[in-house]
Write a structure and sequence with these properties.
The chain has 90 residues and is of the alpha+beta class. The protein is built from three helices and three strands; from the N terminus they run H-H-E-H-E-E. It has a three-stranded mixed β-sheet with strand order 1-2-3.
C-alpha cells in the first residue's frame, strides 16, 4: 500500500492564493469604522502616537485608511515574516 503524498505548498504561494479571495470574504467589513475606532483610541490614550504595528495585515485596507489620517502602519504578516512599513504620513 502506498503512502498518500503530502500536499506541499510554499508559504508564499498559499498566502498569494488566499489574498485573491480576502477582500471578497470581507466585503461586508466596515473598514472605515474600524480605522476611525483605532485612530480614536490613539488620540484618546496616546495623542503623540503617529504609527502602529499591524499584525496580520491582510490586503492593507486598514493601513490605507489610517495613512489618510497621517498614521503610519508597519505590518507583520506570515507572507512577509517580518515587520516593514507599508504606508506613511503624507
Amino acid at each position: 500500500m502506498s503512502k498518500p503524498s503530502a500536499i506541499s505548498h510554499q508559504p508564499s504561494t498559499v498566502f498569494n492564493d488566499y489574498a485573491r479571495y480576502y477582500d471578497l470574504l470581507y466585503q461586508d467589513k466596515d473598514y472605515q469604522a474600524e480605522a476611525d475606532y483605532v485612530a480614536g483610541l490613539m488620540k484618546r490614550f496616546h495623542l503623540e502616537a503617529r504609527s502602529i504595528l499591524k499584525l496580520g495585515s491582510g490586503t492593507g485596507i486598514h493601513a490605507s485608511l489610517l495613512a489618510k489620517k497621517r498614521i503610519c502602519c508597519s505590518r507583520c504578516g506570515a507572507q512577509r515574516g517580518h515587520a516593514r512599513p507599508v504606508f506613511g504620513p503624507a
